[in-house]
């Protein structure tokens, strides 16, 4: 046989060799069987129940979120002074920005910012000066009323069903025990005093840094925000701008609304305490004003302190009247002032507020109780905005929306 015999003729029929079918049910069955043996082929174990795969998917996502939140808390605890200063700067900016916007219509914005800061510091200094003078003027009279009130309380306890009798010897024994405890723990008290002095220095440092940041936030806050947006990738700027706009609208509305409500509570409490003849009405009114910034627990705590002063100074009936009046002020705040001033800027369920305040208190004490509600409100507002609607495609549209939101917040 020659070599030409191996070359097929063009007219010859092609040989029919069996061809493997790479598609069809057989191929799918082999693929599924291989995936069951090797879950990496499909990305999951197909023999696992559907509910288990869903739970596993949500579990690792929740773990990632918890890890991210824990990292944020850990980083914040490392720079707590800086966080407090920036938070205070945002609060000052939210309260003073409407004033600066009005004054900037007739003068340069830098001068308007300086005047607003000077006026606010003057008002705060004048308020504390008045409180100090009122305390100094009523201190002697208050001491006598306090002694009489304590005696009245002792008599009430003795005549009550509890039959608790407290004599002067018991009081002297308590005082002696207190003096002995102070002498035994003088070293610890001195170290605590030094620590407190250091804390006071840190507080003044945080306030100074907050005022410094407030000046720039008021003068060039918009330019600083746009600079930050320009550092982000183009595809992320629209979402960040939309989220930042609604976050500032919610935070500024909450801050200004809380300030207005706290001022109204303080004025109403001062009027009521003066009418009832309770001593130190001005300091107690300021305490009510400060307590309004701590949701749920601030106002009741201020009420208890005012009732104790009224009980010691004027008796049981006056203390009960003080409690009733402050409770009525709280009801007026919750049902009239909050809906009227806040509106829909902060739409949190009371259960969410209670959980936020409790969690913030457990994590960071009084500071956590103060900042927990605005942070949760801002987070929920941003989440609702980004989930409800897709962010606009043009940055100019977002700027228009932010301006409109800011005008609404300023007018409120």
Mean pLDDT: 75
Number of H- or I-type helical stretches: 12
Which radius of gyration do the C-alpha atoms yield?
34 Å
Total DSSP E strands: 0
The share of residues in extended strands comes to under 5%
| Unreliable parts | 391-412
Question: What is the string of SSEs from the N terminus onward?
Answer: HHHHHHHHHHHH
Overall geometry: globular
What is the CA-CA span between the terminal residues? 105 Å
Q: Biggest β-sheet, characterized? A: none
Q: Helical amount among residues, as a percent range?
A: over 70%
Structural class: mainly alpha
Summarize the structure in words.
With 412 residues, the chain is mainly alpha-helical. It has a domain at 80-173 and 196-231. Helix content is 81%, strand content 0%. It has twelve helices and no strands. α4 packs antiparallel against α6 (186-230) and α7 (234-276) runs antiparallel to α8 (281-291). 21% of the residues are buried.
């Amino acid at each position: 046989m020659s070599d030409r015999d191996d070359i097929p003729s063009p007219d010859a029929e092609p040989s029919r060799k069996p061809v493997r079918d790479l598609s069809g049910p057989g191929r799918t069955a082999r693929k599924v069987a291989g995936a069951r043996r090797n879950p990496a082929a499909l990305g999951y174990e197909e023999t696992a129940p559907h509910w288990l795969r869903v739970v596993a998917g949500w579990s690792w996502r929740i773990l990632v979120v918890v890890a991210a939140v824990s990292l944020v808390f850990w980083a914040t605890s490392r720079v707590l002074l800086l966080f407090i200063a920036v938070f205070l700067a945002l609060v000052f900016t939210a309260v003073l920005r409407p004033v600066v916007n009005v004054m900037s219509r007739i003068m340069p914005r830098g001068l308007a910012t300086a005047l607003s800061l000077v006026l606010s510091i003057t008002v705060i200094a004048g308020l504390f000066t008045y409180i100090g003078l009122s305390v100094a003027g009523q201190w002697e009279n208050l001491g006598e009323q306090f002694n009489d009130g304590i005696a009245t309380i002792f008599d009430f306890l003795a005549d009550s069903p509890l039959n608790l009798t407290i004599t002067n010897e018991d009081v002297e024994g308590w005082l002696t025990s207190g003096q002995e405890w102070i002498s035994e723990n003088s070293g610890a008290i001195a170290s605590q005093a030094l620590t407190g002095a250091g804390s006071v220095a840190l507080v003044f440092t945080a306030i100074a840094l907050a005022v410094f940041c407030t000046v720039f936030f008021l003068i060039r806050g918009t330019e600083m925000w746009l600079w930050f947006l320009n550092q982000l990738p183009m595809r992320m700027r629209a979402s960040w701008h939309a989220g930042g706009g609604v976050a500032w609208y919610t935070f500024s509305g909450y801050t200004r609304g809380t300030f207005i409500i706290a001022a109204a509570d303080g004025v109403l409490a001062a009027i009521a305490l003066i009418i009832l003849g309770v001593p130190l009405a001005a300091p107690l009114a300021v305490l009510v004003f400060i307590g309004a910034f701590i949701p749920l627990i601030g106002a009741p705590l201020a009420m208890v302190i005012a009732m104790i002063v009224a009980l010691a100074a004027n008796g049981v009936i006056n203390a009960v009247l003080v409690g009733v009046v402050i409770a009525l002020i709280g009801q007026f705040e919750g049902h009239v002032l909050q809906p009227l001033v806040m509106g829909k800027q902060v739409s949190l369920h009371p259960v969410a507020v209670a959980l936020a305040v409790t969690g913030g208190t457990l994590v960071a004490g009084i500071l956590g109780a103060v900042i927990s509600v605005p942070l949760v409100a801002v987070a929920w507002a941003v989440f609702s905005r980004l989930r409800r609607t897709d962010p606009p495609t043009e940055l100019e549209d977002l700027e228009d929306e932010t301006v409109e939101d800011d005008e609404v917040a300023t007018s409120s």
